[in-house]
Structures are given as structure tokens and as C-alpha cells.
Amino acid sequence: MTAEQTGLRIQQALDALAGSGAEQTGEQLVRDLMEFYGEGLARLVPALPPPALERLLDDPVVTGLLLLHDLHPEDVTARIDRALAALPERVEVLGFAPETGTLRLRRTATGCGCGEQEVEAALACHAPEVTALELERAPQLLQIGTRPPQPAEAR
Q1: Number of folded domains in the chain?
Q2: What is the dihedral of CA 123, 127, 131, 136, to 10 degrees?
């Protein structure tokens, strides 16, 4: 289950409690559990050997937990690069505007590849700071061939 799916399920459970008088109790329960898990993760992350932590950072569930508790060791640029490296199609980062959350990308190869939804899903997991995506296509290359033979009078 992804962090987004888990968040939706928790919100649905809290919404179901709305108006029942148990809403505040449910919200407090979520806060207490978040604090407990956050403290535990804060102790585990520094204890992991770097190669083990590096492998875990590719796991969407682990990444989601670390981001949720503000424990992810990589900055947003590194996490964007990690997300894009996992895609079947290569894209080039043209820029990221943190103030708007807009990431500009360019496909580096033409042909069939991943769709915008696949790019958005990878970024949502690793870099939730990216809230808007501008995806440019790579420029088409011109096919250059030999000139067709010209009639003698045109020369």
C-alpha cells in the first residue's frame, strides 16, 4: 500500500467518525501513532549501514514513511533524480521551481515510452513537493539523405 493510499484510508476513517463525538479521539489516536512511529524511525535510520539505507530509499513504502516523518536523507533534487532514474524512458530535468512545485522535463528520446501518469506516480512517491509537471517532447531529428538527381538543365 502506498503512502497516498494509506493517507486516504485514514482520512476516510476519520470522516466516518465525524459527528459521532469520536472525531477528536480518532484524530488524537492518529497523532499519537504518528509520533510513536516517527520516534522509532528516527532511531532506526541513522543506525542503518549506508548501503542498506541506499537500497531502502528505492522502496516506495519506506520512502513514504521517511518523507512523512521528515527523515528522508536526500534533498528534493536527489529524490527527483531517483524517481526519474526508475522510469523506462529517459527524461532531462530542465528545472524545478519550489515556490510553485513545477518540474519541467524534456524527453531525451523519441518513440514509445512512459506516459505522464507514470512520471507523476514516480514523482508523487519520491518527491511530493512536485505538484505540477511540464513535459516537453524531444525535438524531432531531420532525416538527411542524398539529394535526388537533378535534370541537366537545372545545373
Answers
A1: 2
A2: -50
User: What would the DSSP string read from start to end of 86-108?
Assistant: TSSS-EEEEEEETTTTEEEEEES
Q: Is residue 154 included in any domain, yes or no?
A: no
Question: For residue 89, what are the domain limits?
Answer: 74-139
Residues 48 and 1 in one domain: yes
Question: Which strands, in side-by-side order, build the sheet including 102-107?
Answer: 91-97, 102-107, 132-136
**What is the C-alpha separation between 12 and 4, in angstroms, rounded?**
12
pTM over 0.85? The answer is no
Q: What is the pLDDT of residues 47-83, one digit of tens each?
A: 999 999 999 999 988 998 999 999 999 999 999 999 9
